[in-house]
Known about the structure:
Distance between the termini of chain B: 36 Å
Helix content of chain A: under 10%
Mean pLDDT of chain B: 91
Distance between the termini of chain A: 31 Å
Structural class of chain A: mainly beta
Shape of chain A: globular
Number of helices of chain B: 0
Radius of gyration of chain B: 14 Å
Helix content of chain B: under 10%
Largest interface: A-B, 30 and 24 residues
Number of strands of chain A: 11
Number of strands of chain B: 11
Low-confidence stretches of chain B: none
Shape of chain B: globular
Strand content of chain B: over 45%
Oligomer: heterodimer
Largest sheet of chain A: 7 strands, mixed
Amino acid sequence: ETGVTQSPTHLIKTRGQQVTLRCSSQSGHNTVSWYQQALGQGPQFIFQYYREEENGRGNFPPRFSGLQFPNYSSELNVNALELDDSALYLCASSTRTSGLSYNEQFFGPGTRLTVL
Amino acid sequence: SQQGEEDPQALSIQEGENATMNCSYKTSINNLQWYRQNSGRGLVHLILIRSNEREKHSGRLRVTLDTSKKSSSLLITASRAADTASYFCATVPISGGSYIPTFGRGTSLIVHP
């Protein structure tokens, strides 16, 4: 267990709806990243938040948005759901330090989203 | 697009054998990480190797990095059925600001008891 939790575990929505996924970071971590993983593929980076500010974004449309809260928990919001949004959504927390130091990411178990 | 690409896509071996997976990448990196994922679950970090390192060990795992060839390998010695999983490499580029790992498509390892 990494200490990173995600909710819900599974979710079924219909096309056009909106969804909010939640992540609780490991204690002491100030950075959270969200990934989308389609079946049989590697995780694709959506965006990263560092101290409540977006700190990098992958090739995802604006209908994918996020928030990081002062307690370092985070949300991923997806509007106007499309069938291709069906995937496993993973969040990962880590600790950013100054300079070029980068520490390992701890992943949550993921939320399986199915869009019908 | 995928920065790191694992090879082979799938690997099937007997318990006790060694498993070797390779990762190639395109641009200069700050570090490279290997992760393991059991079916449909979250990823577990295995080893992080920095660009100035050539080899790291952790238990039965050995990772090498060759920056001149832009490649890395993960060796699992004396494999066990419990090692069955997908293995991903992730590269973190040299860039200011954000440290965003880019994952490959993974190697699916099956270890037969």
